[in-house]
Predict the 3D structure of the following.
Amino acid sequence: MKYKFTTIINKEGKWYNAKCAELGVVSQGKTIEEAQKNLIEATELYLENEPEIKKHLPKTSSIITTFELANA
């Protein structure tokens, strides 16, 4: 079965930190692509070690949007 996860990426200094919103798994990389690749690997390892979690994963993906506030 395939699952879709949400990635949140923030830059801190020279590093990009990536987080899987659904599982809380985190990783980092020197580029966005590297951070995403490392997060995928970390998530795969996490799910291998915690197989029970797969039973509770949502079958549908979330809709993520952004918005801006001026002078908040």
